[in-house]
Amino acid sequence: MAEVTSNAFFTTLQENEDAGKKSFGLCCTEAALLEDLAPHFRRLSTHPLQDYVHLSQLVLSANKNAILTDLRSLSLQNDLIILISTQPDGYKLCFDHLQLCEKSFSALTLRNSISFGDISHQMQDLANPWMMDQTIVGLQKHLSGFTGSEFDNLRLVSLAQTQNDLKEVEPLLRRADLIDVDISCCQSGERAIGLTAQEVCQLTHYAGRGTSAKILSIQLASRHSWDLECAATAIWYMLYGMTMRQEPVMKKMRQYTLTSAIEGRKLTFLFDANTQHWWCNTSPSEDEEKLIPCSYRDYEMASEKQEISDRLQYLLSLK
Q: CA angle, 297 as apex, 242 and 206 as ends, to 5°?
């Protein structure tokens, strides 16, 4: 593990370690990439991050074996790991790390395209019980040649669906352990179609607020200034979301139990006024681990129309 000298932004976050702060480790695959990102990070404010999050280590990992070793070490010490890479397999390395941890996890990636061969190879790992499911957000249909119906534990959210209402993507982000952002999914001078940088930052903010996210993978296919700025800002909003993290406590939530079962399910919806998060529960016990992230729209459909939304139906099927 090679520790590196950071710029002023990271130096500030490394200072004043406090037991009450959320800690994160940052791993970058190339020194030159970190140098290219440095001026974009320097433009960012450390307020209010410095009061709530602490950078425990900033390291360089040059090869796959070193990255896996460093991810393992960082995961033992931090609430979140951030991996920045130009390698197309940066996401796969994070995926492999979670598999080696031998604990169930969910993955979500922001990208504009994926081939059937790529996803087929990834989904083969579902034979291993540790990966529960995978979601791809921001997919452009004209760049991808399959619907995802071949896999039960794969959910595709198109670019149009994502941009129609970002809040409806939030429940999927809230439950994901691995968040992957392929910066080429963003609009830029060379890419007219895609998520805007603002939308990507809003989505990483949602992910940071959730308590499940353990790894954020940022993949940069180019070193264009626009992409570098988007990557740095997306990381900032992930950390900003962490400043608002609160574990769900059922006893503190408002509960709305539906009087009649829907499709054979007795549903209770819960609303956390502190976080503004909605949850669904199908168990009579007060076990926060059984809560399913949802939205107000899910509650509205169930209570007024006696229908379960497609997304909630999908999440219920994973339980």
A: 15
